[in-house]
Amino acid sequence: MTQTFNIRVYYEDTDLAGIVYYANYLRYFERGRTEAIRAVGVDQLALRNSRNLAFVVRRMEIDYHAAARFDDVVTVETATTEVGYASTIMRQRIWLAETLVVAAEVKLAMITLDGRVSRYPDDVKMALERLIAAT
Question: What is the CATH number of domain 3-133?
Answer without folding.
Answer: 3.10.129.10
